[in-house]
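The passage that follows is intended for readers who have already worked through the single-chain material. We present the inputs for a multi-component assembly, then the predicted structure in tokenized form, and finally a short commentary. You are encouraged to pause after the input and sketch how you expect the pieces to fit together before reading on.
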Amino acid sequence: MITYLIIGAFLLLFVTAALAPMESLGWWAGWSREGTKEGPSELSAAEATAAPVDEPDMYVIYLSGIGAISGDSFPDEEYPFLHGLEERLPTAKVITDVYPYSVTNNGLTGQRMFSKAWQQVEKLRLKNPNSLLGMFINLRNALQMFVSADRRYGPIYNLGIANEIYRVLLEKGYRPAGKRPIILLGWSGGGQISIGAAAYLAELPSPIYVISLGGMLSDDPGIEKLTHLWHLYGVADPLQALGGVLYAGRWPIMPQSPWNQTMANGRIDIICLGAYAHNGKGNYFDMETKLPNDARGRTHGQKTLDTIQHILTDQGLMERPGNLATALTAAEPADALPVPTAAPAPAREDENAAADPSI
Amino acid sequence: MEMIQEFFTYIDHLFQVINHALRMDPRLYEIVSTNRNSTWLVLGVVFLAGASTLLGQSVVLFVNRVRRGRFIMSLVLNGIIYIVSYFVWGVTIALIGLLIFPTELNGWSVVRMVGLSTAPLIFGFFILIPWMGPFIGKILNIWGFLILVSVVEFGFQVGLWRALIVVGIGWLLMTLLTNLIGKPVIALRNRVWHMVAGTTLDADTQDLLLQFSRSGDAPALLQGGKE
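Having made your guess, compare it with the prediction:
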């Protein structure tokens, strides 16, 4: 009896996995048009190329991990991080409403056949974040991440996501003529989807950067089109390391793969944050657990934010925090933003970055 | 009512045949080789294998925006193509085997048994699975090859090496035939594909997306936002 149950469970898992690409394939083939959002992709040519008015210095698009249920519902731990990000990047427009696990930006609780069931799962997860049913969200989204990384489906899936990102960007005021930098900040599965979507977003005149937070990255051809990729990881995070194992193009014996070629061109920086875990205590967003031996007594989440801020400053995308603080103090009340206490050190490179307490 | 009952009996027997074929059960080979009525069951196995394999590789159908009706017809067509292909393959194996190891065995029995080697491909739709699908496809092909070798071993009452020689020569002969007289057959097959699906299976995702990006239907971003 137990044997049959195990076989049945495996069979169900395999069938679910086999059906995973259907949403994006069906979307492309025009089989399903439900959930497609009408947006200003239909901007007139004049509007789209018009000179920017009051555009932010850059656009940061946050693509959440596999725990996300829709573009506006993330796991609780991510909210303080996102608020911190907005505070630290006052000259950037931080966009969080792209759901990277649906080609039509249609969250699991949106217009879907099983939306009622997902709504129940969401309610249960709100009551108990470690609910076993919540794992179904992770499983469903993890499969979509694999769809993005698969060379058979990736070109379609990533096109859908890139179009949604573009649509939301236009909605938030982005104008191609302004050439404002676009930064995709992808956490976990969002990291892979960021590099996948970058293949198409690179068609825009803006430079495209990706910051991967513990992302499980494949050797996606999109990497070659990026302006730069920073991969932030923790040594206690085996999930992000899986990308380097599962995708042969990331193995050193494949020097011609997109990943290794981009690496050789110096457009990928791998930055170790320390003993960060993927989930639970001591993860990338943890605003409570203090870092051991950190001179400034920061939490894991604060160091993640610091590192992102340093990367963008170092790349010349924003003012150094000291200058910025001075400028903002003159313009706004002093308590509007936390003022960093230490002068930034160059965030570039590498494994050694973990040992540098100033980052 | 009787027809419905017969249909369910057929399905029941089909599942049993698949189950025993997957286990390379010599008792099944015995039944299939001696019982002519098993032809319909073997045809069912080969047809399902063809349809399922195309489902597993259906990304090209989707990329070409094949409509639902044509999609189903394409699966059916591939099932029929599999029946024809495995018939030719079975005849080739039977002829080579009977030539090298003359037995009392009827050649049609061998053709029927060769059809059983498609049983693992009934799981061909698992090739759809992202990342590991192509690997599953290879496993299924190896499994089918092992069934084929065991069928030849059983059919001609020979050992492993002799069975491998028969299969190897069969493969060489098929390759030769494909190169010599295969072109018109492939052209005919492609015409039928065009008729049913509106596409061939020759282009990959990247090619088709590139073609599509130049058409007026392409989404805004794919058409390019560069100045």
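Commentary: The first helix of chain A runs from residue 2 to 19. Strands of chain A lie at 58-63, 92-95, 182-187, 208-213, 228-236, 268-277. How closely did your sketch match?
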